[in-house]
Amino acid sequence: MRVNWLDFAKGIGISLVIIYHTIEGILNSDITECAWVSKLATYLSLWIIPMFFIVSGILARKIIQHSSFDKIKPKLFTWLYIYVLWSFIIYVVRLSLSHITNTQVLYLDIFKILWDPVPTIWFIYALFLSFLLTWLVRKFPPIVVIGCAYLLNLLNLVRYETKWILKYSDKITLKYRYI
């Protein structure tokens, strides 16, 4: 059964992601230095991805709560198949063009897709892991799941974001001024 407002949310979300990436492309190309365009990109970046994961969670709730692993296996396999296939395609293209681009790719870099998703399709990797982990912890009390998610997020912040935060602290201040 289709839910109209979810279809509408997905359509708006897809449109806004396209707008966001177009704006980012313009800003990264140094074509213009328009302050309102930069502010729009910052604003959009704050809520587009959370919106997608909220909609995905709403759509996945029933199958996660009431299904055996045999029923979720096809969905997991589809995401895994798409992720591995497109990671390989992107890897081959980057490897074959690395001599004329500023991105150096090594032959063994393909194995990094297991722990470091390709930036272009990171969300498929994240959906796969989110869906699987949510299914695995579905019988735990919500407070335990939320607490563990919070701790994992803090560990991620400490491990990966500290240098980034120090490097881009002026942009982070701008970004979170809208909250």
In brief:
This protein has 179 residues and is mainly alpha-helical. Helix content is 75%, strand content 0%.
Describe this structure in words.
It is a single chain. The protein has 3 domains: 1-66; 69-137; 140-179, no CATH class. The chain has helices spanning 4-28, 35-66, 69-97, 122-136, 142-167, 169-176. By secondary structure, the protein is an all-alpha fold. The two termini are 35 Å apart. The longest helix is centred in the first third of the chain and has 32 residues, at 35-66. Helix content is 75%, strand content 0%. The chain has 6 helices and no strands.
Assign the structural class, choosing from mainly alpha, mainly beta, alpha/beta, alpha+beta, or little secondary structure: mainly alpha
The major β-sheet equals: none
Mean pLDDT level:
81
| Count, helices | 6
- How many beta-strand runs? 0
Task: Describe the secondary structure blueprint for this structure.
Layout (H helix, E strand, L loop, with lengths): L3 H25 L6 H32 L2 H29 L24 H15 L5 H26 L1 H8 L3
Helix pairs in contact: 1-2, 2-4, 3-4
